[in-house]
Amino acid sequence: MASTNSTTNGPPNAQLPIAIDLDIDNITEHVINRCSQGRDPRMKFIFERLVTHIHDFARETRLSTDEWRAGLDWLEACGQICTENRKELITVSDILGLSTLVDEIDHPKPPGATQGSILGPFHSLEAEDKLNGDQISCDVNGEPLFVFCTVKDTHGNPIPGARIHVWEADSHGEYDIEKSDRAGPDGRGILRSNEQGEFYFNAITPVPYPILCDGPVGTFFEISGRHQYRPAHMHFMFEKEGFDKLITALYLRGSMYRDSDAVFGVKHSLVVDIHEMDSETATKYNLPHVNKILRYDFVLASDMEADALRDKHSAAVLKALGRDAVLVGHVPTTTS
Amino acid sequence: MASTNSTTNGPPNAQLPIAIDLDIDNITEHVINRCSQGRDPRMKFIFERLVTHIHDFARETRLSTDEWRAGLDWLEACGQICTENRKELITVSDILGLSTLVDEIDHPKPPGATQGSILGPFHSLEAEDKLNGDQISCDVNGEPLFVFCTVKDTHGNPIPGARIHVWEADSHGEYDIEKSDRAGPDGRGILRSNEQGEFYFNAITPVPYPILCDGPVGTFFEISGRHQYRPAHMHFMFEKEGFDKLITALYLRGSMYRDSDAVFGVKHSLVVDIHEMDSETATKYNLPHVNKILRYDFVLASDMEADALRDKHSAAVLKALGRDAVLVGHVPTTTS
Fold it and tell me: Which residues of chain A from 203 to 262 reach within 8 Å of chain B, CB to CB?
């Protein structure tokens, strides 16, 4: 009796070929067929490419049973070490360059727009709203730094009312959510740009720091022989209706590890200088004891600009794949 | 100042190109270079193929930030739900066909050798040693089944002293290690073949069962529209010095889901009939109340036979990749 009886997901699809005697050459097609019975054509496409690449990886490496098991155990350990504030899988994605790649893919930038950089594992929804001029860091050991920025569109028009998340590590390179004894959010805040598209706040000068290596990520660094340091940087995320979300960071020009960031986030256009504070600014913003200033002008891509680029890139990729596929929501999907 | 200072893994490799302005097209090479600083040439090759396929997957799907995050959260959940006796990542590998594929790759079979099948997540090291003729299941609701097997080499010579793990679910399709109230190992045991290469034991007739879907694996089945059932089967694993480990299973011919096993394990050569007990066997092995018998003759590949096939397949794959690589331990590796 063949397997055509009912299950939670309804009866097995009688149109699928019988899946017996699967071997190295024919198994991929069978697994893809089996994963293509859902309703979402985007997920069918994702499963198809996922199964293809996982299988090709095993075929090309001639992956052994012991290596397979070690890999699964390592992935299990990545999940087990996670907590609300420790996101080991994001770090894994970061150190494999996947996070930078996905940001480049999903947030394409037209000429003139500020480039993106990785989100990292330390963005937190717990951040407090801040007013222009507020202090975001209570670390008294940090070097005080005034940050003055603008946010505009690609035509040079100021964008008022943008919601801007900023976050940075403390003077020891540790984020608030890494600390078990923290009283509340620190080293972070959510600002709004004013009518001139300006936003500004007090912070501390960022320092380089190592990625936390007391878990599976540490094992990976050890085996791959890599260093685990990030150059000094400050994170920014911009949200404003009509504009594509910008996730980025600014990197200090002189910082160690700038040329070999462990998570591949640095771009020349995001490398900045910290200058001596000028007296005009110090007076205007009432900053008698702050000696350093960082200035940056951010430029957001509009939704339309980003979508046009997504469509163009997706179409090119599908053409290269030789695929009978269509775009839905600016990303590739299956036709069926 | 460039990043050439000391770190846990020694100074950044000055010979690596500066990793700034990484984009969709150039990031893969940089990440591979960075992952190639370890001492193990096999791991370098594995990392190279892993990074290549993860990146190609993201590029081809135009993976969005939301999809990326959903995928990482799903992987985190897979790790979080794992316990000593629940191995969600093995199940994930099983339902993606990876487990079957890796067994086919790592345990190639010469003509005449018994084919492999997947290990699954329910093998346990807690199993007790059993003698020929022992009962492995204490499930009184199961249909009693006598299992009589032989194990030989590819020339037909009996293999005495082989260590044989057997395991099966109970009459409700549940394994011992799935039960929180279990007293000890049940439905499993470790036997030894006798001088004639025979091993035999009492068990129960296996039944089909669904894969546990109360976790991330269930979400996957839901999205992919697949059923989650396995046909009735019994697991076997053979260990004997000089022979390649054989992980396999026997499947009942009439079982539901035989043609659409949720984990792609069925092979025609592993499909068996359960027969009515014959009086000669019942008398010889003192089984007055057992009405069913399953017979199977297993054939093990020698280490030499398996290694020769590994070398041949690995060389073919490397040739197809156009790679300057060498085999170490019968698997591909890098030359440097």
Answer: 210, 213, 221-229, 231, 245, 247, 254-261
